[in-house]
Amino acid sequence: MARLAVFTSGNGSNFQVIAEKILKTKHTIPCMICDRKKAYSFERAKNLGINSYYVSYFEKTKESAEEEIIKIIEKEKVDIIALAGFMRLLSPMFVEKYKNRIVNIHPSLLPKYPGTHAIEKSYASDDRELGITVHYVDSGMDTGPVIRQESFIRNICEPIEEIEKKIHNLEYATYPEVIENLLDSCAGGNN
Description:
Elements: E1 3-8, H1 13-22, E2 28-34, H2 41-48, E3 52-54, H3 62-75, E4 80-83, H4 92-97, E5 102-106, H5 118-124, E6 129-136, E7 146-153, H6 160-187
Helix pairs in contact: 1-2, 1-6
């Protein structure tokens, strides 16, 4: 049995899909950490029976906020960290401390369109193939090693709302599965 922490900053739809999948396995989610006090993620965590923590970055250095997060991670004995709409770039110190234990989902086929507004950038492009990337987190912006990509061929007449829906459906199908596999690997022979 391995332990997952999910970091989020907002609505938490990916967090909920991850939690619903992982809570049906032998693994646990001891905590959700969010950097926005009024994020709907807290309501989702409460409804799922998952401990939630608010870590403010307001008037703090990134390092001091991350020290607070590290204390939570250590207290909760977390094995894997999944970023699910967490809108902060983690420091090299934090990434190194949890090297190959932090994963993220991105709504484009990296290395194309890193950073924010990836769906809009993909949509505005001439790319026929659009999709998602699950990757390990390094100290760059969406530059870590790719774990898995999934894609579809777009219909050039589709509105952006349809593209967003297809991207989110790929995220909801793929990310929890990848996380479960990582937790299985982490648990090793202790299943």
